[in-house]
Amino acid sequence: MMIGNAAVVGGGVIGGGWIARLLQNGVNVRVFDPAKDARQKIDAVLENAALAFENLIEGPRPGLGRLEYCNSISEAVDGVPLIIEAVPERLELKQSVYREIEDHAPVDALIASSTSGLLPSDLQADMKHPGRLLVAHPFNPVYLLPLVELVGGNETVPETIEKAKGFYSFLGMKPLHVRKEIEAFIADRFLEAVWREALWLVKDEIATTEEIDDAIRFGFGLRWAQMGLFETYRVAGGEAGMKHFIEQFGPCLKWPWTKLMDVPDLTDELVDKIAAQSDAQSGHHSIRQLERIRDKNLVGILKALKVNDWGAGKTLSGYEQQLSLDFGEKR
Amino acid sequence: MMIGNAAVVGGGVIGGGWIARLLQNGVNVRVFDPAKDARQKIDAVLENAALAFENLIEGPRPGLGRLEYCNSISEAVDGVPLIIEAVPERLELKQSVYREIEDHAPVDALIASSTSGLLPSDLQADMKHPGRLLVAHPFNPVYLLPLVELVGGNETVPETIEKAKGFYSFLGMKPLHVRKEIEAFIADRFLEAVWREALWLVKDEIATTEEIDDAIRFGFGLRWAQMGLFETYRVAGGEAGMKHFIEQFGPCLKWPWTKLMDVPDLTDELVDKIAAQSDAQSGHHSIRQLERIRDKNLVGILKALKVNDWGAGKTLSGYEQQLSLDFGEKR
């Protein structure tokens, strides 16, 4: 078992993002993805990430990790202390992937699912060693956004969460332990709420996709990039304090403002309308160009906020020990 | 009537923010606020704004506007082409303020309400010249955040919106015309949705205020500071396009994820819990310190994103003409 090795199963947008973050942090990666165009897609993500990190990191950077494409899960997971699963969001598929992983990985390896929608207790239900499974839910682009939500299931042992915290911090991330297992965890619940309201606004012709995006990015988006909801309101409340603010603001919730009480039907007409408005908004850019614009902006923001601990003399030494679990049994 | 003059009625957090933005853009301001501590509060905002603009603007800056404290509404609004109203959110109060403004302001002056909750049709219901009233809803801190939502009521004339667009653009803002009059306009509907879900998460002990803030600011907050909701999803959807993305993502809305179907009761217990968690999160900073941290971060982000057109050689000349309306009658 080598220090600084990890396996990634599934090389889509999220798996590719994990690979990029791992490599940029000097971790060697073995990847398995059966798709024919997997390499091409992963290469595109790696290229974006390389460009972003060139601009992000001003001090010395650790050497890049080594990427190895494997022909099977068994080959990818052999001897690695951490396996990141990023396959499509189907419970049976993920469970079958875990069976194959458990047949070939070290018994003390951590298994981290990237799911945004499935519960860890369900994911680990058929595992031989369920204590080592956790959800580590990242946000796109994974190589730049720091947040990773860590969620254990009923069978996950506390040590798994603790070791994961250490590892993801090492990757320059902000691990957030979601202490209660809950659908959609934390951040996606907010995204859902906003998405639902946005669908209503487009459907009812209150605003176009571009107007909605402008309402976000020139206003509260700028606030939330640096202070969350509660802290922002604490400041807005002034010296009178948070309690005073809530007492003033809270009653508005009873007003007939929002449409959140149900979900608009996603008719063909609504889907077409959104797609057409989105095309009008940015169809003149390719997705590739939009990714570059996004990354350039994110790098600028991360640098302005100093949200990265790169170049702070961190070292990979000892990370194998930190990651390995002890289930009283070794392969 | 002098070029580059405006009146602000109400000098709280929002009114003070308007004054700061106006002065920093070289506009002279007359303010009326009957509160005893109004000057002190306004001075604190101006000090924050001065510090922020020193860091924000690298090129040459226009001279500061002149601030004049007035003893009455009539004195403040006499002869100015734009009156910004930022008094507390009570319809009757605002309507009585408009009556006094209309008795003393030029008949062609624009009247812009900062309300976040009241509808312009209601605000203008008793006005002599309702065509000149609009809502221009800013976001805190007003001197730094670019978004201003412009909303007309049933009686607002199109020219009012057009002139306001020009003026707020001159102030370095991003005016967003909300074409249909709707409760909470656009941005606050999203804030409501998130706030409601956040209250549930705290109440049910899923997460603390600090954890919720971290889930926002290390993840989607960073995305939304530079690309809104739809654009982010367009990119996430990749080459398959927006339509494909919605078809994949949309059905999740039917899952039992979010708690948005009702509002948690704001019991004393819940209010105390939030206040205590917020104290634990940042009680070691004064509000003043938090404001400075916020502003420093915002300045960094705005500079990184180049979201300000300062120093681009803009001039105040001619703004009086742009602002004045023609109702066929002159004072």
Q: What features would you describe in this structure?
A:
- 2 copies of one chain form a homodimer.
- Chain A contains 13 helices and 8 strands.
- Chain A has 331 residues and is α/β, with parallel strands linked by helices.
- Chain A folds into 2 domains: 5-185 and 309-323, Rossmann fold, CATH 3.40.50.720; 187-305, Orthogonal Bundle (N-(1-d-carboxylethyl)-l-norvaline Dehydrogenase, domain 2).
- Chain A has an 8-stranded mixed beta sheet, sandwiched between helices.
- In chain A, helix 5 (120-123) links the parallel strand 5 and strand 6.
- The N and C termini of chain A lie close together (11 Å).
- The relative contact order of chain A is 0.13.
- Residues 315-321 and 326-331 of chain A have low confidence and may be disordered.
- Chains A and B meet through helix 7, helix 8, helix 9, helix 10 and helix 11 of A and helix 7, helix 8, helix 9, helix 10 and helix 11 of B.
